[in-house]
């Protein structure tokens, strides 16, 4: 059996300030993946209007995400960095997928339930169809792997369902068009055009929690800025937030088992582990038995050492938006060429005249 060419795709929404959780859970993973993979990284500005239509400055937020990608180490020359709205084929394929997907699939999405709450009839159609657009983002490049957090895993499973249904429904058309490859779904042979994309989940800190409440995920939308470390925070802000982070009165345990039931302690140890590329066990072997009054200054030094260069480079890049815009334009043109080829082939498979 032939295999789809490996390709990594992922995106970040331009909503609010990027924080430590975004960096450790996503962007640093993006940087590592580019060493051995072809990668496409997208600022998903079309997704940003699904829950909030009007933004105060969406352009600035989009540039900020792109600056964070580059400042963290993503190479926009060897790989592709662009903003989603620059490639209209995302929306075109999303419409096809809207017709492939079932309403019941969308209504079962946990994030839709969480964001719509009791007012499901009042939210935008875009919020309901968000996973269909996400599937199009990935599959318009026929990407094979997507680094995602646990909260997006269900959406990626839906992308697989959409790809599978398209491949099954149009199997004969795909073969007649001379496209795709022979594969199997379960025990059934299928001539597939779209790959069954695989999630890349994991790493030392896939979930970074709030500095004010270790049971809640670090979030851009938390009303307290002290709950998160923003990538644009300066040294003083980073130090202040870590020193004010919620803890408990007990010393750090010497083994990971001792972190159970101590959400804030586990969160800070996890952050230190991720920033230092160590395990929690390694961190506790070094700091076990010590009070937070000794651990927090060490965490401040580590966080500043890792984040300050990214902060500085982001500020430098954002001082010259024409450079950021040129990178996004070049990335959009390169991404668009790939996406256009896919859409030409999808039109042939479906039977649209062109």
Outline the structure in words.
The chain contains 13 helices and seven strands. The protein is mainly alpha-helical. The protein has helices spanning 20-33, 58-72, 89-100, 103-107, 110-116, 125-139, 153-169, 171-176, 235-244, 263-276, 280-287, 292-318, 321-350; strands at residues 8-12, 39-43, 80-83, 145-147, 181-185, 188-192, 198-200. The strands form three sheets. Strands 1-2-3 form a three-stranded parallel sheet. It has a two-stranded parallel ribbon with strand order 4-7. A two-stranded antiparallel sheet has the order 5-6.
Question: What is the count of β-strands?
Answer: 7
Note the overall shape: globular
Please report which band the strand proportion falls in: under 5%, 5-15%, 15-25%, 25-35%, 35-45% or over 45%. Answer: 5-15%
Task: Note the total helix count.
Answer: 13
How confident is the prediction overall: mean pLDDT? 91
Strand order in space, largest sheet: 1-2-3
N-to-C SSE string, H for helix and E for strand: EHEHEHHHHEHHEEEHHHHH
As a percent range, the share of helical residues equals 40-55%
Q: Structural class, from secondary structure content?
A: mainly alpha
Query: Separation of termini?
Result: 31 Å
From the alpha-carbon coordinates, what is the Rg to the nearest angstrom?
Answer: 22 Å
Low-confidence stretches: none
**How would you sum up the major sheet?**
3 strands, parallel
């Amino acid at each position: 059996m032939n295999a789809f060419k490996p390709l990594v795709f992922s995106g970040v929404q331009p909503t609010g300030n990027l924080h430590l959780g975004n960096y450790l859970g996503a962007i640093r993973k993006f940087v590592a993946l580019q060493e051995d993979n072809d990668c496409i990284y997208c600022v998903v500005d079309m997704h940003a209007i699904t829950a909030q239509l009007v933004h105060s400055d969406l352009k600035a937020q989009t540039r900020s995400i792109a600056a964070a990608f580059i400042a963290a180490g993503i190479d926009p020359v060897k790989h592709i960095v662009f903003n989603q709205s620059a490639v209209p084929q995302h929306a075109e394929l999303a419409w096809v997928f809207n017709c492939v997907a079932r309403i019941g699939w969308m209504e079962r999405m946990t994030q839709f339930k969480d964001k719509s709450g009791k007012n499901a009839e009042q939210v935008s159609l875009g919020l309901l169809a968000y996973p269909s657009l996400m599937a199009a983002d990935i599959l318009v490049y026929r990407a094979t792997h997507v680094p995602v957090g646990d909260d997006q895993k269900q959406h990626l499973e839906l992308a697989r369902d959409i790809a599978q249904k398209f491949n099954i429904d149009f199997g004969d058309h795909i073969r007649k068009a001379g496209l795709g490859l022979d594969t199997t779904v379960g025990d059934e042979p299928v001539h597939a055009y779209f790959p069954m994309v695989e999630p890349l989940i994991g790493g030392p800190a896939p979930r970074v929690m709030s500095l004010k409440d270790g049971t809640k995920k670090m979030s851009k939308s938390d009303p307290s800025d002290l709950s998160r470390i923003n990538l644009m925070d300066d040294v003083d802000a980073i130090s202040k937030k870590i020193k004010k982070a919620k803890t408990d009165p007990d010393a750090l345990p010497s083994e990971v088992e001792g972190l159970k039931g101590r959400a804030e302690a586990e969160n800070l140890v996890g952050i230190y582990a991720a920033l230092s590329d160590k395990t929690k066990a390694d961190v506790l072997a070094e700091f076990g038995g010590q009070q937070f009054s000794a651990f927090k200054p060490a965490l401040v030094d580590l966080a500043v050492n890792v984040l300050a260069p990214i902060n500085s480079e982001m500020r430098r890049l954002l001082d010259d938006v024409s450079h950021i815009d040129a990178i996004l334009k070049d990335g959009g043109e390169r991404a668009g060429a790939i996406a256009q080829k896919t859409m030409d082939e999808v039109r042939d498979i479906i039977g649209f005249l062109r």
